[in-house]
Amino acid sequence: MRSYKNISNLEDLQAKKLELKVEYTLKQNLLVADSKTFAKQFTLGALIKKYATPGNLFKADDKLNISGTAMSLLLPMVMNKTLFRGAGFLTKAAVGLVSGKVGKSLDAEHLSAIYNSVKGWFGTRKDKKAKKFIDYGIPPDSETY
Question: Each residue's pLDDT tens digit in the chain (145 positions)?
Fold first, then answer.
């Protein structure tokens, strides 16, 4: 317990009161900051960053084939809604069967390879030039561009 024996007059009391108020405000600010930091650990973005790393996704996908199951359901719907919109019943059924089978064969590694190749098509021109020079063994520098 705190001892207040050193307070002998009104000025000491007001100084002690101000000191306690400052201490209270600092502790309050620290508590609010710590609670915000603690709460941010459990947001959707933080949980995705923590648990949805490529290594974890590949491990889960090897066991359960989640990506293959999702693609076998989504690929027929996407194909029939976009490319084969005006097609007849038999064509849509055939597309659904074929794309469902193709979707089951896709796993996370195939999907990431497809994503990287499509991303490479839309890369910036400067990156492609630099890669071309590096492939030929020419170091890219500012004079070459």
Answer: 567 778 889 999 999 999 999 999 999 999 999 999 998 888 888 877 777 676 666 666 666 677 777 888 888 888 888 888 888 889 988 988 888 888 777 766 777 778 788 888 877 666 555 565 565 555 555 555 4
What contacts 24+ positions apart, CB below 8 Å, involve 38-43?
A: none
Q: DSSP secondary-structure letter at 43?
A: S
Euclidean distance between CA atoms 58 and 106, whole angstroms = 12
Whole-model pTM above 0.70? no
User: Helices marked H in 41-107 — which ranges?
Assistant: 44-51, 54-64, 66-82, 89-105
Residues in contact with 133: Cβ distance below 8 Å, sequence separation at least 6, in sequence order: 139, 140, 144
Q: State the helix-helix crossing angle for 66-82 and 108-121, rounded to 10 degrees.
A: 50
Q: From CA 44, how far away is CA 37, in angstroms rounded?
A: 14
CA distances to 64, 71, 88, 89 from 78, in Å: 23, 10, 16, 16
